């Protein structure tokens, strides 16, 4: 299907270089406007150089006229933001967007997007599975979802499997051996405790993933309820905010059982509210990290769900910018990403029949500005 982007493909011409009056100070291809507006960032997926991570404070030795040497510390923060753009109806990734199409607001202030590239890479993910003696429907839905995700994996992907009830249990550490992953899922037969300490389990998993380099993903499959966690909801939300480079995808279990109980009058008002609160928590975990939330009613929906998750993980835009607020003061910066055309208006998409297409922009809602290390 061909996607037409209104006014998105028109590019501002790059002005011709001014005849030099002095020896040139840089290579012509290094000019900022040429790098930001050129189509090569999008078209050359495999040749696009990786954007370096935020630079550590640079201590440069400088000599004054008297020959004395002193150190200069330079802090140059750079924000790297993973953004996914998908069509609402078909869940397709939308390619072809350019730097001018992205409007990034940090605490409500517009930022200058310096580069945009598309990444396609193997994934490093943790499957965090609720396995407790509370409801057979939850266990069945969890196992079906886990198998669905396992089948969507590729040979270069690394996956760990962790279950939780009142505590976490590591079934397998990170491995690219899919048979080991499959065997760990098949081993789940008799649950132990009925408690589901979700907040504690997610907190521990975030701790483990923070020790791994690069982008990580957590696939959380459970009913969303928490029983006796030591960690409160506020603390787990703060932990999510403070953990960079982790995207959480959540799949709620028990949708069909809840629907049948509700239709048959078997669910009380309190039970209905508990279910809504549990699903809202799963949705919040995903939204805060730029992930996706699903609450499938039937098993037949799972292949499409994991195809969408796979597409979201493997195809992403990576935006970089230098924040206008360059203080590393430890505060949380709210980030919002919008798509605009060359006139700054909301970007409109159309199919080949010129019918409008609805789309979603998925990204983290903020980040912590780290304090400099003394």
Provide a descriptive summary of the structure in words.
This protein is of the alpha+beta class and 374 residues long. It has 2 domains: 76-119 and 316-374, no CATH class; 124-313, von Willebrand factor, type A domain (Rossmann fold), CATH 3.40.50. The strands form 5 sheets. A 6-stranded mixed sheet has the order 10-9-8-11-12-13, with helices on both faces. Strands 7-14-4-18 form a 4-stranded antiparallel sheet. It is globular. The protein is 27% helix and 27% strand.
Task: Briefly summarize what is shown.
It is built from nine helices and 19 strands.
Output the helix-strand order.
EHHEEEEEEEHEEHHEHEHHEHEEEEEE
Overall average pLDDT = 79
Number of strands: 19
Kindly provide the radius of gyration, computed on alpha-carbon positions and rounded to a whole number of angstroms.
24 Å
- What class would the helix/strand composition place it in? alpha+beta
The CATH homologous superfamily name of the largest domain equals von Willebrand factor, type A domain
> What is the count of structural domains?
2
* Apparent shape: globular
CATH architecture of the largest domain: 3-Layer(aba) Sandwich
Q: What's the assembly state of these chains?
A: single chain
How can the largest sheet be summarized? 6 strands, mixed
Question: What secondary-structure arrangement, pairings included, does this model have?
Answer:
Layout: E1 4-5, H1 32-37, H2 40-43, E2 58-63, E3 69-74, E4 79-87, E5 102-106, E6 109-111, E7 113-119, E8 124-130, H3 136-151, E9 158-164, E10 168-175, H4 178-186, H5 198-209, E11 216-222, H6 233-242, E12 246-252, H7 255-263, H8 269-289, E13 293-294, H9 302-314, E14 316-321, E15 332-339, E16 349-350, E17 356-357, E18 359-363, E19 366-368
């Amino acid at each position: 299907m061909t996607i037409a982007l209104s006014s998105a493909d028109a590019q501002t011409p790059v002005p011709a270089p001014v005849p030099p009056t002095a020896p040139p100070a840089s290579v012509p291809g290094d000019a900022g406007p040429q790098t930001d507006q050129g189509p090569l960032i999008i078209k050359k997926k495999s040749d696009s150089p990786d954007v370096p991570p935020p630079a550590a404070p640079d201590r440069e030795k400088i000599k004054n006229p008297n020959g004395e040497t002193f150190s200069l510390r330079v802090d140059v923060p750079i924000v790297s933001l993973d953004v996914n753009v998908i069509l609402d109806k078909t869940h397709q990734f939308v390619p072809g967007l350019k730097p001018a199409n992205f409007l990034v607001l940090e605490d409500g202030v517009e930022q200058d997007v310096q580069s945009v590239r598309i990444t396609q890479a193997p994934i490093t993910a943790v499957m965090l599975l609720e396995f407790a003696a509370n409801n057979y429907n939850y266990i069945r839905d969890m196992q079906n979802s886990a198998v669905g995700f396992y089948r969507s994996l590729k040979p270069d992907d690394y996956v760990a499997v962790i279950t939780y009830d009142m505590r976490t249990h590591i079934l397998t550490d990170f491995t690219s051996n899919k048979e080991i992953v499959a065997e760990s899922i098949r081993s789940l037969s008799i649950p132990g405790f009925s408690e589901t300490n979700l907040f504690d389990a997610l907190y521990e998993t975030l701790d483990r993933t923070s020790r791994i380099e690069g982008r990580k993903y957590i696939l959380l499959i459970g009913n969303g309820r928490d029983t006796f966690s030591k960690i409160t909801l506020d603390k787990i939300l703060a932990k999510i905010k403070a953990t960079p480079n982790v995207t959480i995808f959540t799949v709620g279990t028990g949708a069909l059982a809840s629907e049948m109980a509700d239709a048959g009058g078997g669910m009380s008002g309190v039970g209905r509210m508990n279910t809504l609160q549990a699903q809202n928590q799963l949705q919040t975990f995903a939204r805060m990290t730029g992930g996706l939330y699903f609450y499938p009613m039937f098993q037949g929906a799972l292949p499409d769900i994991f195809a969408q998750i796979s597409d979201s993980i493997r195809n992403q835009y990576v935006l970089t910018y230098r924040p206008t607020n360059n203080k590393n003061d430890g505060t949380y910066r709210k980030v919002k990403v919008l798509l605009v055309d060359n006139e700054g208006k909301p970007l409109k998409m159309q199919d080949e029949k010129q019918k409008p297409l609805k789309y979603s922009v998925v990204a983290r809602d903020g980040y912590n500005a780290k304090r400099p290390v003394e």
